[in-house]
Design goal:
ROK (chains A, B), 5-stranded mixed sheet, homodimer, ROK family protein (chains A, B), 317 residues, alpha/beta, 9 helices, Nucleotidyltransferase, domain 5, ROK_cs (chains A, B)
């Protein structure tokens, strides 16, 4: 990747982060504001414009050659629109057109947030050097993205790698997406916590019933807390094995709040993977923790913008 | 694709088919023999050499510029070896090296049989014009392959698209592959038939307990036969929806003996797909019957050889 400078946005249901990022992935300038997620679409766009405006006040802005956007999904990169589940005011919202205008006409590259995280882990993190990788976030939801043949695979609409909503239990519990037994329905933080409580786990004196509290109990040997993580690990393993069996990957990188549980999650996950990843070409699949921190979305959006520029330059030359 | 001539082999557990195929996919010369599947590896290779030898006796042989091989899997395209489940004499068998020698040094392109079928459907069949497609065979087993971004996606080892061995029921019945609840374990012909019998279905006076007989009973309204196809359809739908959610495809093409059941399979499959393919970017996924006949493996192996040649030519120029 060359040493251009690009602008990047990471748009989530809680915050909108922006940055100017150089060709090595270093963040040079930052801006951020809360997402007015329950307001109308133009108010949300106003917050995006505010972040871009702050970046544009930097003397480095004039060197920016493109804007990469990683957004909560679903996105539609082919139409240039987004419909984030947690931002009801944006439904088929023409984010690309509006962001391009707000960024003084810079070319815009839009990808889903799971794809952005993947771009970052592949460029600078745990998937670096791997030509075929799945990167995941296991947190309030479960998301992901794919690298295939050495390149990011966003898919035609920028949503590929949505591993949270594949069914690994076709008669399982109903998922808010409309399907049943989705990986997210079994393995997300809130579902790990809810299941532990349903199975009889009780929080300590602080009343904390989060997945982190269940992880702490599991670490201390609580059998119900361990069982809830075990089931999450099996669902993740079945989903990761399915991905490897379908597209051939040699590494799965897992980040997000639930991954912070460490071996409470990773030990049963590696065991379960031996049960589900059985064919010769998937048996050596590694599972490792993510290495990028909270800037992964920004760095990944920048990576996508830089990669698109490199493609365009190659096509022109 | 240009109008070169290539040699093609379709190697299965029952027969070894060979052909000379032109750049339009027309089969000009054929040769075939039974697979001595229970013999030692070199005896099986002898049958391959016999087929190639017959092709080489054609005056067209000297125009062949490459050999494409679609083989029963697993294959390892990166090592040039094959280990077909139904050919025990071939374990990590160096098929590419041996076939190259038998074909007078022609460059060899090896892919799995599911990938070969996919290449054929994309080139000339039901997936033609689709840049992102899953093609499947539902028969004694369940196999498949992927087209992503307009190109065949064999994966590094040539096995990508193995949809038969993704788990859609993580606590389901044990599959011979070692996992549980695999699509093949629920939806293959033998499993449809076995389940119907277990559920109380009885064959007619001819004693035929094949999936085709169950399909005929389902067509006549037998509720147990219908229920067995219904469950197969749900497993296929969950697997197809998982594939679409992971990599973004807009069409799934289904061939093989079980697909010949027609609407007995496709009607419940389309219904179940609405239950599992719920996200905006997968909701419009089509499912259609395959169009290529029994020559799909040969035509697809030829397509892979031609595509590799075109890539090599582009890289050189």
């Amino acid at each position: 990747m060359h040493t251009d400078l690009v602008a990047a946005l990471d748009i989530g249901g809680t915050k909108i982060a922006g940055a100017l990022v150089d060709g090595r992935g270093t963040i040079l300038v930052r801006a951020q504001c809360a997402t007015p997620a329950q307001e109308d679409g133009d108010t949300v766009m106003g917050a995006v414009e505010e972040v871009l405006g702050r970046l544009a006040r930097s003397p480095l802005w004039e060197r920016a050659t493109a804007l990469g956007i990683g957004s909560a999904g679903p996105v539609d990169a082919s139409a240039g629109t987004v419909s984030p589940v947690n931002v009801p005011g944006w439904r088929d919202y023409p984010l690309v057109e509006r962001a391009r205008a707000a960024a003084g006409g810079l070319p815009v590259e839009l990808i889903g947030d799971g794809v952005a995280i993947t771009a970052a882990e592949h460029w600078q993190g745990a998937a670096r050097g791997h030509d075929d990788a799945l990167c995941m976030v296991v947190s309030t939801g479960v998301g992901g993205g794919l690298v295939l043949g050495g390149r990011l695979h966003p898919g035609p609409t920028g949503n590929a790698g949505h591993i949270g909503h594949i069914s690994v239990d076709l008669d399982g519990d109903a998922c808010p997406c409309g399907a049943r037994g989705c990986v997210e329905r079994i393995a997300s933080g809130p579902n790990i916590a809810r299941r532990a409580v349903e199975m009889g786990w009780r929080p300590g004196p602080d009343g904390d019933t989060s997945a982190a509290a269940v992880a702490a109990a599991a670490r201390a040997g609580d059998p119900v807390a361990l069982a809830s993580f075990e089931l999450a690990a099996r669902a993740l393993a079945a989903g990761i094995a399915a991905t490897a069996t379908l597209v051939e990957i040699d590494i799965a990188v897992i980040g997000g709040g639930v991954a912070k549980a460490g071996e409470v999650l990773f030990a049963p996950l590696r065991r379960a993977l031996r049960d589900y990843a059985t064919l010769s070409f998937v048996r050596d699949l590694e599972v490792v923790p993510a290495r990028m921190g909270t800037d992964a979305g920004l760095v990944g959006a920048a990576a996508a913008a830089l990669a698109r520029q490199a493609d365009t330059a190659a096509a022109v030359s």
